[in-house]
Automatic annotation (TrEMBL):
<dbReference type="InterPro" id="IPR011050">
    <property type="entry name" value="Pectin_lyase_fold/virulence"/>
</dbReference>
<dbReference type="InterPro" id="IPR007742">
    <property type="entry name" value="NosD_dom"/>
</dbReference>
<dbReference type="Pfam" id="PF05048">
    <property type="entry name" value="NosD"/>
</dbReference>
<dbReference type="InterPro" id="IPR012334">
    <property type="entry name" value="Pectin_lyas_fold"/>
</dbReference>
<dbReference type="InterPro" id="IPR006311">
    <property type="entry name" value="TAT_signal"/>
</dbReference>
<protein>
    <recommendedName>
        <fullName>Periplasmic copper-binding protein NosD beta helix domain-containing protein</fullName>
    </recommendedName>
</protein>
<dbReference type="InterPro" id="IPR006626">
    <property type="entry name" value="PbH1"/>
</dbReference>
<feature type="region of interest" description="Disordered">
    <location>
        <begin position="155"/>
        <end position="175"/>
    </location>
</feature>
<feature type="domain" description="Periplasmic copper-binding protein NosD beta helix">
    <location>
        <begin position="272"/>
        <end position="438"/>
    </location>
</feature>
Amino acid sequence: MQTDTNGAGTASRQSDWQASRRSVLSSIGAAAGIGLFSGSEQAQAGAGLPGAGALFFVTTGAGQSNGGGNGNANGNGNGNGNGTEYLVLDSGRGKVAFTTGGTADEAFQYAFDNVPDSGGAVIASADTFHFGGPATMGDNTALTGQQGTRFVATQTGTDEDPAPSESQSNPLATGHDLIRVRGNNTAVTDIEFDANGTQLSNQAIQADQCDSVYIARNRTVNGFQMALSFTRCTGVTVAHNEVLNPNWYGITSRAAPTGSDRDLRQSSDVVIAGNRVVGVKFNNIAPYNVSNFAVIGNVAVDGGHSLIACSPAQRGTIVGNVCRDLTEFAPDPGGEAGIEIEYKETHLRDEVAGTPEARSSDITISGNQVDSCPVGILARTVPADADNTEARTEKRPYSFTITGNTVTDASAAGIRLRSGDAGVVATNTVRNAGTAIDIDTEYTAGIEQGLNVTR
C-alpha cells in the first residue's frame, strides 16, 4: 500500500481507470460535495458544496491486473489475488490520496484514520470490496454505500460450533468482522455485507463502547455468527436493515466470539425498528442486558429460539412486530416463543448477577402479531441448574404488561407465564392455541387478567 505522491506510476494507474469511473465520480462528487473531477482527477474549483466537511470516496480500479502483487512501488506481494486495486479519493486534496493492491480493509482504514476530529464521511462506490480483516471506525464518522456496494469477508480458519444444527457439520468456517465501530457519533448505512460462508467468530458490524450509533438500510447475507452487534453502547439505533440467514443471532447486544470481554455487556437507550430478520438458529432479535429500549415494527421469521428475546432487559417496549414460523432448536424449559422476557442465569456477567439488572422488568408488549410459534408470548426464569426451582420465585420477571396482541397457531400456548410478578395480561386475542393462556400459579404472583379473547 502507499500514499499517493503524484508520481508517474500513480498517474499511469489513474489513466487506466479514469474513463470508466468518470461518470461515477462525477455523480458521487456532485452529490457529496467534492465537485466534478477533471481529466487529471483534480477537483474543479468552485464545484464543491460549502461546508461539506471532510469526505473520502473509496472505489476500485476496475479491470486492473496486478499479477498478485500489491500494485505499488514497494512490490511486497501482498495482493488480494482478484486483480482489484482499491483507491481512496480525498475531497480536500481533490485527487487520489491512497492506493492498494491488497485488500479493501486497507483502503477503508486509511480513510477512517484520516477523518479529522471534527468529523467526516467515507463513501463506498457501487462495487464489491474484498476484505482481509476488519476496518475500524473512530469518532464522528459516517460510512455509507449505495445501490451495489458490497463488502465480502474472508475465511480465517475453522472451528467447532458448540451447538450445531442438523444442517451443520463441524468444523464450521470462521471469519472476521467487516466493520468495527469504536467511536461516538457514527453511522453505517446502505451496504450489503457478505459473510462468504463464514459462520463463527464474526459480525458484519460490531459496535463497542460507543455513544450515538446509527446502523440503517444495510443487508447481511451468507453467514456471520452474529450479523449486527452492539455492546457497551448508549444511544443505538438499528433500523430498516435486512438480515438473512446468520448463524446464531440477527440483531443482538451479544458479541462474537461468545465469552469474550465484549460479550453480554450492558447497553442503554436502544431502538431496533423496521428491520427484517430471517433464518436464525437462536434469536432473530436479541436485546440482552439492555435498558431503556424500544423494539418496534420489525419482521422476525424462521428462528430456532424465541424470535424477539429480552434476556434480561429493563424499561422497554416491544410494539407492533410481526413474528412467525419458529421451529424450535434445543429449546429451554417452557419452549420457545415469538416474544419472550426472561431471567437466564447464563446470560449474566458477574457484575450483573444479583443486581436488579439481572431480571427483566418494566416491559410493555403490545400490538404484536405472532403466528405459528410453539408459544406466542412467554415470561420465564431459566437458572443454570434446572433443578433450582427457588429461582423461579426469586428471579422472576416483574412489572410487565402484555396487551393488545394477536397470537395464532401456537401449538403449545398462546401466552405462557412460567414465572412472573406484578404483570398484566389483558385484551389479547389468541386463536388456535394448545392452551390459550397458561399461567403457572406456583411461580407467579400479582398477575391481572381481563378481556382476553380466545377461540
